[in-house]
Amino acid sequence: MNRKKILLGIKIFVAISLATQLGIFFYTSYQNGGISFNIPLKGMSFCMLGIAFFLSWFEGPITGLRIYFLMRVINPRITIITSIKAAYANIFMGAITPSQTGGGVAQIYFISRDKISYAQSSAGSILCFVCTMFFLITALISTAMFHSPTMGHSLQLMIKSASVAVGVTTLIFVLCMFFTHLINNLKFTLFAHFKSKGIIKDENGKIEGFLKKFAEGLLNCRESILLMAKRGKMALIVGYLFTCLFFAVRLIIPYFIITGLGGNVSVADVMYIQLFITLVSYFSPTPGASGIAEVSSLVLMASFVASPVVAIYTFLWRLCTLYVNTSIGGILLYRELKTSDSA
User: CA nearest 239: which of 69, 107, 108?
Assistant: First the structure.
């Protein structure tokens, strides 16, 4: 793993997050007549805020247990401790890389430390992705049919559009799994045709190399799913249930924060909006969706959070759903890399 790139990702993540948090603070202060550092303690419930903070510590273990049960089918050598470490490393690297692209790499790295091959580690990571994808499609279809009088037409339209987008993505994924060899052959045939016509120039072989890696990835993904279909149906169901539990915790944390800050909201409405924000965060080009997540939350949660505490809510929300677990993942990854260097 490239330490310089990791350090750069951390710097970008911290810089954008800090700038956005300060921007929200100054913006909301301006709306309320000037900058004030007084925290409105009246009406706050520290018990509710404590529950939100308490729940934030469960994300790593829940994700770790999902990895453990899925990997047990592929290679029983995996341990729970390694699985939890891999989960935290996934969260950390996902936070400091665009669109969470580094999360899977970190997860594979930690799993392989249990003397498990990279191919098997990759298979486990792919199955985790499959569980996440199928949770999103089922959750979005469910919320698309949900109608709340407090939700505006525009927001409901966005949710339905997101459901269609994820549904199409899932359909493409399923087709790729059913027709893997056909798609790979067609892809290379088209590439060779366009290259011979001079439409595509690939003097260094980078495009061809990428296509080969992509083809290998599709085959590994197909083999992993077929393996689970034969030997680990129950493990796949358990993995999906842990995925549901992980997202349930993440989506309900904002409810306890808002209630703790003196707000009065519906659990369903909060989770409805949070699901959309989560989806936006997954595809955000910035590390850890920094900037985009905060602004999305500011806009979409404005009707639920009182203006004087918006900045506090945004910070606590990111603290409980990202900063806590990212910090743990960063410490574990640092110690692991330090240990591997000294070995």
Answer: 69
Q: For residue 42, is it within any domain?
A: no
Could you list the residue range(s) of the whole structural domain that residue 85 is in? 3-33+48-342
Q: Which of 253, 302, 307, 303 is nearest to 275 (CA)?
A: 253
The Cβ of residue 278 has, within 10 Å, a number of other Cβ atoms equal to 19
Distance between CA 207 and CA 126 in Å, rounded?
A: 23
The tens-digit pLDDT sequence of the chain (343 residues) is 566 777 777 888 888 888 888 888 777 777 666 555 566 667 788 899 999 999 999 999 999 999 999 988 888 888 999 999 999 999 998 888 877 778 888 888 888 887 888 878 888 888 888 888 888 888 877 776 666 555 556 666 666 676 677 777 778 877 887 888 888 888 888 878 777 777 777 777 777 788 888 788 778 778 777 777 777 788 888 999 999 999 999 999 999 999 998 888 888 888 888 888 888 777 777 777 788 888 888 888 877 887 778 888 999 999 999 999 999 998 888 888 777 666 5
For residue 75, tell me if it sits in a domain.
yes
Answer whether residue 134 is part of any domain.
Answer: yes
Residue at 188: amino acid letter:
F
Beta carbons within 8 Å of 256's beta carbon, 6+ residues apart: 48, 49, 51, 52, 55
Spell 226-258 as b/e; 16+ CB within 10 A means b: eebeeebeebbebbbebbbbbbebbbbbbbbbb
Whether residue 40 lies inside any domain: the answer is no
> How many structural domains does the chain have?
1
